[in-house]
Write a structure and sequence with these properties.
It holds the Pfam family GCIP_N. It contains 13 helices and no strands. With 369 residues, the protein is mainly alpha-helical. The protein is elongated, with a radius of gyration of 29 Å.
């Protein structure tokens, strides 16, 4: 068995671990330094390196499970991955900066690159085990590999493919497409909150002893009696207040939920492209921050209502409304190039008009919340 093969396989594992640590510990620079003189597009490099690694893994898998087991051929593939695909993948991930690609996108790229490295390392370790068994005489190079061993290699290969495909997909979506995907996820969270709130019945879920501050320690003995009790006037008033606030909350939350698909369709999908200007990146960063925080405010508003606190519920609703308004104002006008000096009013479109209408609706419904 070739010593070169063992050396290259062990090197691949070590490199993968070192590169993962590098991605973990290297701080994200706000912008890419221009002093290096490089004109390489990090997104192109990231995609190309993932495609290359995927191709090399395919070759490695076939060579590992197909007889005869040929150390020289496997060495060539592993050496190429060590020298090119792995370093390029890490370099590309490190070149992506928050100031040019948003913090969320750059973080996602690092996570996905680490996943690809980890899965590649796991595959290489399996190939190394096969090589050790060949070396020990437990496997014969000219004989077909046992089905169980083939299945392990094939499974590990599939995991590397998936990791590489995810990296490639991230690049194909670009920054704006990635943000659009996240916005859809946040929209789904709000829809879930709406469904839960619509199904909630204050009469079935209200513990009046808690709401009214009762200190009765013998509640268990009185459960059956309590079930037959007619609600007091104070309890009826509380139920009525919760029903009213539930309706008011839904009147606020439903329009807030509408801004998510509207922004995706009219601003994010229309932006397109793999990259955006720095000013647009800043806008995307702010937009993402606002849209991400709204589901939390909505959950707090609903949770406060479930606990019987109308005051807290209204406070969180107003916070959600204010945040949603800020998000709408950020993108009320179409995307503009940095060199575009034309009058902003000339750039208005149907979404701009829709935004104004939405703001008026929110001004009306929040008064009743």
């Amino acid at each position: 068995m070739s010593e070169k093969l063992f050396r290259l396989l062990k090197t691949a594992v070590v490199l993968s671990e070192q590169f993962q640590a590098t991605l973990d510990t290297t701080p994200q620079a706000e912008t890419t330094s221009t002093s290096t003189g490089t004109t390489t597009d990090p997104l192109v490099l990231l995609s190309d390196s993932a495609k290359t690694l995927r191709s090399q893994v395919t070759k490695l898998s076939l060579l590992a499970i197909t007889s005869p087991f040929t150390p020289s051929a496997i060495s060539t593939v592993v050496g190429a991955a060590n020298d090119s695909a792995l370093p390029s993948l890490v370099t590309a991930a490190l070149l992506l900066t928050p100031g040019e690609y948003t913090r969320a996108f750059t973080s996602e790229a690092r996570v996905l690159a680490k996943t690809a490295l980890r899965e590649f390392s796991t595959l290489v370790e399996e190939v190394l085990r096969l090589a050790n068994r060949h070396e020990a005489g437990a496997l014969i190079a000219t004989q077909e590999l046992p089905a169980a061993d083939k299945d392990v290699i094939t499974s590990r290969t599939g995991r590397v493919w998936d990791a590489c495909d995810t990296v490639i997909d991230l690049v194909s979506k670009g920054v704006v497409g990635f943000v659009a995907g996240r916005v859809q996820q946040w929209h789904d969270l709000i829809k879930d909150a709406i469904n839960e709130l619509e199904e909630w019945d204050p009469e079935d879920d209200t513990d009046f002893d808690d709401l009214l501050g009762s200190g009765d320690e013998d509640g268990e003995d009185d459960d059956e009696d309590d079930d037959d009790k007619e609600p007091t006037q104070e309890e009826k008033n509380q139920i009525e207040a919760l029903h009213k606030q539930k309706k008011s909350s839904l009147r606020v939350i439903k329009p807030i939920a509408q801004i998510y698909p509207a922004i995706i369709s009219n601003r994010l999908k229309k932006k397109g492209g793999l990259t955006a200007s720095k000013s647009q990146i800043q806008k995307l960063e702010s937009l993402s921050s606002d849209l991400q925080s709204i589901p939390g405010h909505v959950d707090e508003a609903a949770g406060s209502l479930y606990e019987g606190s109308v005051t807290d519920s209204v406070r969180y609703l107003r916070l959600a409304k204010t945040t949603a308004e800020r998000a709408i104002q950020l993108v009320s006008l179409p995307w503009r190039d940095e060199n575009d000096t034309s009058n902003a009013e000339d750039k208005e479109d149907k979404f701009t008009v829709w935004s104004r209408t939405w703001m008026k609706v929110m001004a009306d419904v929040i008064q009743d919340a």
